[in-house]
Amino acid sequence: MITVMKFGGTSVGSPEALQRATGIIMNEKNNKIVVASAVSGITNFLVKGTENLSSNKKEMLDEFEKKHIDIAIQLFDEERVSDFMKDFNIRMGTFRNLVEDEAASKDPYYTDNIISQGERFSTLILCHMLRAAGAKAVALTSEDSGIVAEGRPLSGSADLEKTEAMMAMKVKPYVDDGVIPVITGFYGIKGDGLPLTFGRGGSDYSAAVVANAINADLLEIWTDVDGFMSADPRIIPEAVKIDEMNFGEAAELAYFGAKVLHPRTIEPVRMKHIPLTVRNSFKPEEPGTVIHHLRKPMDDMLRSVAIKTDLSIISIGSAEIAFHPEMVSRIIAKIAENEVVIYSISTSLSTVAFLVHNNDVKSILSKVNTLDSGDIERIEVKNDMALVCAVGDNLLSKCGVSAEIFTAVKEARANVEMISEGASDVSLNFVVPMSRATDVVKILHRKYVRGGSNEEL
Ligand code: ADP
Ligand code: ASP
Ligand code: MG
């Protein structure tokens, strides 16, 4: 039996958190593989650092180094600190060389390389913690582990087949020998051997990729909340923890903004029927949320709601476009040239509308403008939209439920700009202006989530 255990930034973010994480790992009876994020705040620090790297190289490196050494000094005795520093100095030397390397800085994937550095140091600390606790552990980078990635800068995907073959050679032997591999989250390695990150929050996805590759029996995501909740607790303080979800529900909610899981975490584990739990590393005694294939029907109208913000609707008008599917296909082919994500599409007799990220609008318009102008009558853009994704057992099956949901939306004085009911068999998705989205979620949660409060807005 193998359990893959992923610890997020806050779960490795302080000496106390690292001690708790070590306790959780040591208590796990199965064979285990650990995947860790960078110490909390470090990836943001690196992202900022890359924005004006030329002027502040030394300060950035010194501060980065100090932050990690300070943590190690608080955790380890003298002998272990000196052991740790041997490994630390090797990794720090590589990082310093990278920052000074003018030629490397021209590479389009250079930012991926810099911002992936945090994970290399958090895993090193955690590995030494496990050794200090008496375990056999090894700190492996994504390079060492063979996590293979492909794709555009800052938004890579794993090549699951290649990763499985690599990890069978590079990681499995450690597990068989009773050694705990502690692997860097957040990035994989491209064909040229250089890092490619999986998007912000990507360590959840890394852990799912590792679980897939190693054919794990369980994936545990250890974070700073009690589990997958009925809404983001930062927006809805009365959000309640969900005990059990199926893969489809979790996948839709994560894809549409539930930040507790990276949008692509579910697929690698769903493919291999590997159950996933979301648990609070600050309360290890709590069972958290179990996500798996089937769950008991709950008969609830609304189970969880997520919001994806910073979206735009691009509406393209063309006479009787509904009778010209080849026209729709040409527009989509043009948009696809930029590899952007389309979150929703809807059509009417003479309009096709796409929901995309605000940042992609400019490039999409420039592509669409290269189409034969005779075909297109008008293009309209509405910026700053939010997609609300609502999941619940009765949402799609029970008569009249959509009407109730949209009445609640009206109460929040929001106009529904686009609907995609029925596109997924687990969620009802609709688009409202971003400025109203939080109120919509508050009202929906208060009215329809079991355990939601009845407080007025
Ligand atoms: P980690 O560093 O452990 O990966 P993240 O900050 O990425 O943690 O994700 C956990 C956070 O996700 C929570 O603190 C919470 O604010 C937010 N969140 C958003 N939606 C949800 C949800 N539906 N359930 C639980 N947490 C959520
Ligand atoms: N450290 C990375 C980030 O902050 C990855 C992660 O935390 O999952 O985005
Ligand atoms: Mg996260």
Account of the protein in words:
Helix 2 packs antiparallel against helix 3 (53-75). The strands form four sheets. An eight-stranded mixed β-sheet has the order 3-6-2-1-9-11-12-10, with helices on both faces. A six-stranded antiparallel β-sheet has the order 14-15-13-16-18-17. A two-stranded antiparallel ribbon has the order 4-5. The mean pLDDT is 93. The chain is of the alpha/beta class and 457 residues long. The protein contains 16 helices and 18 strands.
Quick gist of this model?
Helix 2 runs antiparallel to helix 3 and helix 15 packs across helix 16. The chain is of the alpha/beta class.
| Helix fraction bin | 40-55%
Low-confidence blocks of residues: none
Rounded to an integer in angstroms, the radius of gyration calculated over CA atoms is 24 Å
How many H/I helices? 16
Number of distinct beta strands:
18
Beta content: 15-25%
Mean model confidence by pLDDT = 93
Tell me the span between the first and last alpha carbons: 48 Å
Which distinct ligands sit in these coordinates? Answer: adenosine-5'-diphosphate, aspartic acid, magnesium ion
- Describe the largest sheet: 8 strands, mixed
Secondary structural class:
alpha/beta
Q: Looking at the structure, what is the overall shape?
A: globular
Give the spatial strand order of the biggest sheet. 3-6-2-1-9-11-12-10
